[in-house]
TrEMBL record:
Residues in NTF2 domain copies: 32-165
Organism: Hymenochirus boettgeri (Congo dwarf clawed frog)
PROSITE patterns: NTF2_DOMAIN
Protein name per its UniProtKB record: NTF2 domain-containing protein
């Protein structure tokens, strides 16, 4: 694992930049969201065996012990699942890439990524994107993360995740889809905290 990957979430020391020294009032929430999403999806997608990438340090250490994953997926019907605890949330997300061989492609432009924070230091990151398996585009996803900074380790950790996957009936190689976008406004995200 490269030094950059190892330090990626640790107080956001990206490539030795000292982004972490900002106060919460001046925290660049959008930059934090962008860097978090790059780190998260690279780490999660690397667990997909069809990509043959070097695996990172995916695991429950990136989640709070009392974290919650709410997962909804629509294929032919709507299914809802909920997982409590760092281990369960981590394992369910891992199974999406490792066993189900899904690949998440987040839309990192301003329509696909929105962030908000509170004076208490809580951060919400909402991201939209497409979901793939091999050369097939299976549909779109929306994912909302609640991040909380750990005062002991000085790391941002995942407190909650809401993941929604909407499947499309695609029977051939990847087709062009409208880039998914987050319809939440910053004030809407703040209400989720």
């Amino acid at each position: 694992m490269t030094d950059k990957k190892a330090c990626c979430i640790k107080r956001f020391y990206f490539a030795k930049e000292k982004v972490h020294e900002q106060t919460y009032d001046s925290l660049d929430c959008q930059k934090l969201g962008e860097e978090f999403c790059k780190w998260f999806y690279q780490l999660l997608n690397a667990e997909n065996p069809s990509l043959a990438q070097e695996r990172g340090d995916w695991g429950p250490q990136h989640f709070w012990d009392n974290s919650v994953l709410k997962f909804e997926y629509n294929t032919t019907q709507t299914n809802r699942e909920e997982y409590r605890g760092a281990q369960m949330a981590s394992l369910r997300l891992l199974s999406l890439t490792r066993e189900e061989t899904l690949i998440f492609n987040p839309n990192m432009d301003s329509e696909g990524l929105k962030c908000a924070n509170t004076p208490h230091g809580l951060v919400v990151v909402a991201v939209a994107g497409t979901v793939h398996r091999d050369n097939f585009c299976l549909g779109i996803f929306e994912q909302i993360f609640g991040l909380v900074n750990c005062p002991v380790t000085k790391n941002w950790k995942i407190k909650c995740i809401n993941l929604k996957i909407i499947g499309h009936n695609v029977s051939g190689p990847s087709e062009s889809l409208t880039r998914p976008c987050i319809k939440y406004e910053t004030r809407d995200l703040e209400k989720l905290l």
